[in-house]
Amino acid sequence: MTGVAFMLGGRTFRHGVHPAEHKEATRSRPIERMPFVDEYWLPLAQHIGAPSKASVSPGQKVQRGEVIAEAGGFVSTFLHAPVTGTVKAIELRPHPSGKQLQTIVIATDAFASQKITTLERPAQDADAATKAAFIQRGGLVGMGGAAFPTHVKLQVPKGKTVSFVVLNGCECEPYLTCDHRVMVEQAEQVMRGLDLILELTLAKRGAVGVELNKPDAIEALRQAIGTRPVEVVGLTVKYPQGAEKMLIDALSSREVPSGGLPLDLEIVVQNVGTAAVLAGLFDHGIPLIERAVTVTGPGIRRPANVMVPIGTPVRQVIEHCGGLLPSAGLVVLGGPMMGMAQKSLDVPVTKGTSGILVLDQSTKTVSEEPCIRCGRCLEACPMFLNPSRLAQLARAELHDELAALHVMDCFECASCSFSCPSHIPLVQLIRVGKALVRQKGSSQ
Amino acid sequence: MFEVVGATLPVIAAATYYFGVTAFLVIAAAVVGAAGTEWLFARDRGWSTLRDGSGLLTGVLLALTLPPGVPLWMAFLGGVVAIFLGKVIWGGLGKNAFNPALVGRAFLQAAFPITLTTWVAPLGGTWHVAPSTLAPPLMKPSVDVISAASPLGLSKFQHQSTDLWSLLVGNTAGSLGETAGLVLIVVGLWLTIRRVFDWRLPLATLLTVALFSGVLHWLSPSSHPHPLFMLCSGGLLFAAVFMVTDPVTTPLAPRGAWVFGIGVGVLVVLIRSWGGLPEGVMYAILLMNAVTPLIDRKFMPRRFGGKS
Ligand code: SF4
Ligand code: SF4
């Protein structure tokens, strides 16, 4: 049987953790539009793979939606002006990753109409390669956070088949609700995007996995199914269900082989937000120039879900949401489990920014205690690793043993750190361990 | 760990009820020995073990495995040895292979075998302090306690059974913490619900003892006691709740926990049925502590997406 056996309702993967959800503040707030600001900062590296190559030069006028950087390779993508204006500079600027990276700076033309320059769409019967190239031209990346170029996943390699498409609507990170709102408000587009993916991959069936804490999203999507060979599956709330491998396990009880891809099981996974943008691209020629972002946390005055043009400085998004409260502490881009803590608010929203989370100062740092071998990290790790041991090995810099215990299977979900009663920074240590193994591998 | 310390309070209360203030004094002496040693060595090493209460816990648990009439200086010495040999020389919390409280108890048992197996009957009166309790150090305690045999001793050497109800309410001779079965069951359930420990460990231990001794009893009822008696007597419940569940000295992974518990269960029955001792829980656990690294190596979770 080539198909995937999946069942209805309340399914989930094994292991994982239950962090407090904290979604109340924004779960029922409709996505609002962020007004235009003076300047946009567009790093050439906003996705996994080679950075884009700038195709504009300083002083040049650009239209909203126009290409400003081209793909730097197959695993890379295009970049578009989020606003009509003038290229002010192409220079090193702070990036959410903490590095200084090449960034195209666009000054907004305050008097422009801000009408979107759309892309020319391929014919309905164009071949798969043409359509994949179009997706790349549209600048699409996975919007759940990883920002992997979408066209790469949707171009099925020769000799492989796809039988099943999964849309990821888990949004298992605490605080975040932007996918939730997209599913509720744009259920039709999400389904339309799923149609396109089914068509491109020649898959027979599809499913949308949504955690059961979003009943309105499940309802909206079910309404939108129509006659499609698609199922909306409610999943028991658990972190990290939104990880590709966990979601596939939850839906089909099958494990993606270690080091392998969902494609090895004839499955393709896309985020629901990506599907909605895909629909806009194919139906209207609109590239990826904006995205829904959840701005929330105890340190923000007015939590909201906001449609933000890519490249908007984080500081301005926060101001749009009433600014920081006096108690504001750490600012994180993404969710609290896998997001990136920021040193400065002068970084842009990128294609992979799903949330701006402002914690408060009282989120206290606790001191590390010795490992008491309680085994909780083992029972949390969705990859069935031994985080306690891996962290010890990373401290001792024993890369051979790290590799032998499959440290590279870790995808840094932080479930282990979350569950550790001794507050050992397990995921940070394991990240160091992975870097050690990588170094060792490349030096040979 | 403070939650576990808190969980010992009902047990301490039961011990004080049955054996009088003697119980309280013995516990205090062991705690002073254990926590004092911890403090002495933790000071300049930066361990935070005094804060986490694990030294305190070791003292309390050790005391609860001792007979009520034990001299205070022995309890104190046991506490010192438990922390020093059980923990300090290994490098502190989390690095020790053997349960520190049981290390202390094993030391006392080896050094003072008679005293450690002299039981007194419960309910001697609340303010009763056994004369042996206050015996000065290194003197042979005058054997003037009204000694009583423990239920396991009665069963093994005199083929005399103790009824289940006495075992459950704790109205029997035995170590301080082991007699009140009901209290231990309630505390164990509470700690399970609060997810303080891995329920697999006590469950595997108790189930194994029940099954194994059940089979033996069925084969030969006259020479092997009833499984319910086995479960409720001789510190098994106490050990299942407070010793088998020590995270540091037991396996990390769930499958390892089952193996450990089953191992303890089998050893307990073997020692009780065929060994020279009526009681075997302590040695069973220490033996399984010793093979824990091996269990850890053999029983890790199967890797996700690996070939199975
Ligand atoms: S070891 Fe890696 S995959 Fe496992 S829980 Fe920790 S961060 Fe997640
Ligand atoms: S959760 Fe922390 S204390 Fe427990 S075994 Fe893992 S690393 Fe050790």
Summarize this structure as a short list of keywords or feature phrases.
heterodimer, A: 444 residues, alpha/beta, Rossmann fold, OB fold (Dihydrolipoamide Acetyltransferase, E2P), 4 domains, four-stranded antiparallel β-sheet, 17 strands, disordered N terminus, B: 308 residues, mainly alpha, two-stranded antiparallel sheet, 60% helix, 1% strand
Walkthrough of the structure:
The complex is a heterodimer of chains A (about 450) and B (about 300). Chain A is an alpha/beta fold and about 450 residues long. Chain A has four domains: about 1-20 and about 125-285, NADH-ubiquinone oxidoreductase 51kDa subunit (Rossmann fold), CATH 3.40.50.11540; about 40-110, OB fold (Dihydrolipoamide Acetyltransferase, E2P) (Beta Barrel), CATH 2.40.50; about 290-360, Ubiquitin-like (UB roll); about 375-444, no CATH class. Helix content of chain A is about 30%, strand content about 20%. Chain A is built from 14 helices and 17 strands. In chain A, strands 1-14-13-17-15-16 form a six-stranded mixed β-sheet, with helices on both faces. Chain A has a four-stranded antiparallel β-sheet with strand order 2-8-7-4, with no helix packed on it. A four-stranded parallel β-sheet of chain A has the order 11-10-9-12, sandwiched between helices. In chain A, helix 5 crosses helix 6 (about 215-225), helix 5 packs across helix 8 (about 270-285) and helix 11 packs across helix 14 (about 425-444). Chain B is mainly alpha-helical and about 300 residues long. Chain B contains 15 helices and two strands. Chain B has helices spanning about 1-20, 20-40, 50, 55-65, 70-85, 100-110, 115, 150-160, 165-170, 180-195, 200-220, 225-230, 235-240, 255-275, 280-300, and strands spanning about 120, 145-150. A two-stranded antiparallel sheet of chain B has the order 1-2. Mean pLDDT of chain B is about 80; it is low at about 140-145. Classes of the chains: A alpha/beta (about 450), B mainly alpha (about 300). The structure holds iron/sulfur cluster (2 copies). One iron/sulfur cluster (SF4) binds near residues 387, 411 and 413 of chain A.
